[in-house]
Structures
1.
Amino acid sequence: MDEMMTNRAFLQVVESGSFSAAAAEIGVSVATVARQVNSLEQRLGVHLLHRTTRSLSLTEAGKLYHARIREVLQTYDSVKREVASFQKDVKGLLRLHLRHSVGNQVIVPALPAFLKKHPNIKLDVTLTDVREDLVSQGVDVAVWLGSLEDSSLIARRLSPGKRLVCCSPGYLAANGMPTNPDALETHNCIVYRAKSYDSSWRFSRDGKTTSVSVSGNLESESSAVLMTAALNGLGLVMLQEAMVRASIQSGALVDVFPDYQVSSTDSDIALYAVYPGSKQTSPKTRAFIDFLVRLFKEY
């Protein structure tokens, strides 16, 4: 017999003053309540109630057990309600893994608005371009680049990952504007170094694609390093539009080939929000995914 059920039956008998009143309150037969209380007493090895045909009262052991088990069940019910509220309310700690590039340039600047809307959420943000094991690391949401391989995770595309080739006005003043993609062979190009990426930049327009081999005096696996170098006039760089849009709008960077679609890899370059698969995604996770979708809608 279920131990929780027998304990609740015992409490109801004590609080109602009789087996019949307890049975009516619980919605079962008097015989069922009697069996539950008898089962509890047998399991404990003591009598909890003095029974007569007209009344019942607690034994000494019954008084102690009643006081303690009532407190235990009240605590259990309170914890149960509190835990259940996480599936109803947007609250709690949200652990995030964000890529350095879009994390610094796009997502983190928008977090105050998210937190203002959801004041009961606390964020733990890690900037990393490494695909960690989200489940073992306790990560709720990650922002990754490229297609998802692990089927136990769920991915939602945020942005197609459009790239732009850009540089600072100072670099153009010193070296001139390249008139076509082939001219990049004579320019200092800052190259992103990572798996599935190479030193060939692809330019597509009107159904035709041109591949240009580029090189320069700086390579890095960090988009943040490349952008900082470009902003300081080192050379031309290919970066996500989401990362450089604000700098282009302010005039700190110049879009060199606005009429081309550009890429430095044949792999998927889209940006995804990734989170562990679950039958019940928490409200805090859903809220943050929705926030990301709205944020990247224009990219």
2.
Amino acid sequence: MNTTMYKELIAYQDNMLNINIFQQIRHFHTPFPETKYHYHKEIEMLYVQEGCLEIGIQDELHRLEPGDVVLIGTSQPHLTYAVPSEKAIYLTLHFDLQSYYDPSMLVHYRYFAEIDNPLSRVNELFRQNAKLRNDIGRTVLDIHQEMERRSSGYKMAVSLLVKQMLLAILRSDLDEAARSQEQIPAYPLHLVFEYVERHLADKIEMETISKMMNLSYSYFSKYFKRVMGLSFIEYVNIRRIKQAERLLLTKDGSIATIAEQVGITNIAHFYELFKRYNRCSPKEYALKLATSGSPDS
């Protein structure tokens, strides 16, 4: 298949916080090091301090001006296209969202785990809500200052700032704020999510998972659906297809081979799931990303 995208490995400035933030200065005539779409497991945020910047996120083009922020979701393909101004100065923040989960965020896991939609949908909130956009920009600046100065307690400060940013986003999304009023018992579902990611190529049995959680099969099934809003089987299928999307764009191989690599041995079932979640075939998906890899396409 196509090799139009690659996985970028993010080097953390702090391995406890799993975070990286730095300022970039790019000029109009400076060539960009990225020539292909890339992705990483970390959430990425850009905050423009001066000039203009054009960013491609999947098949969307975002033009950013001073004070603008943009969010790129976990493993979401993206590419910096151009600096249409003489110079652009901006902050780039990467952080591993898993490092900031705690029981208080459990009811919001479905939202931040991008089960229904990519987290980059909040970019529309940034465009519509000037206060939110300013608050997020100021928080990114504060994180940068804390990581630069590394004063006593900076790890605590950065952790609080990241959660403050997530809270601001959550409360600005009225649909999610209304949905998350239900009180739900807290179990360490992050162990389930980590297990699923490690075993996507294997057969994943809910009985194994429920024993790992020390819960009955029936209770775990109901609990998972109550928290996530979808069954455990559907969640596993979504994660398999998400992995298949990345393999289609980074690995050479037949669609049947890629289906096997994500644990789906029935090719017809693979096509059915892929079309259900992407509204197109695997070949159409790869072609769409390949043709959107250039700003002139």
3.
Amino acid sequence: MGRKVHPYAFRIGAIKGWNAKWFAEKDFSASLLEDLKLRKGIKQKYTDAGISNIEIERQANKVAVTVATSRPGIVIGRGGQRVDEMRKFLEELAGKRIQLNIHEIGQPELDAFLVARSVADQMEKRIAYRRAMKQAMFRTRQAGARGIKIACAGRLGGVEIARREVMHDGRVPLHTIRADIDYGFAEARTALGRIGVKVWIYRGDILPETKPENEDLSAAEMTPPATEAAAAVTEAAKPVEQVKPRTRKKADETVAPAAATSTAAVTEDKPKRTTARRAQTNTEET
């Protein structure tokens, strides 16, 4: 399933969270369409801002929108002028009060969508696709990624028959749930048609949090003592081990007196035989 399912959706609940953080018992479809309008409007208006991810959180009468971008200066503008423009634009789309937050991406080379967008932009500028893919892989590996895979599909090089080219460097374990894998997709609109670019970036493992030693000690202290049944079993087991040598000693003691009585009987029989022999010799002499 690792090669069929979206890598982000495959890890939701384990190491990833939801991009839309709200719950609605009623009007779910209206809220969902509103989210799609907000995302589409932001990406269309700020195509050059390097926007990678948009998180939406709903409250009572307010919608909080967090925009992750690699170029916060384009989104914010001078003195926050463009932020106010974006807020008004989104409020017109949604018809609600909107709180706008801007989050800067520290390393754009480790963001799969931004890498895919950069490769697609180079293809639109008529740069060779192999060169663009290799440069993107080199920069991502230099930034600290453990592995990267790039796949381009379409009329590569202007050929008549479309094909798919894949390049990878390092490890990309798609089936490992604890692996932090980012996935991005972008399209290059060339004169001969569209070319799809997919990028997978393996940024390392996200391991579960280890419990501190104090909690382990408290857990050990809170464990209940042994039950009465277990104590009875242990007490019953102890004399069983001591019975065996005692029985052997009794057997030895019973054998020893028997041997003593048999030797005594033999010694008693000897003088009787000697007296009988003396009586026979005396009768013969007479």
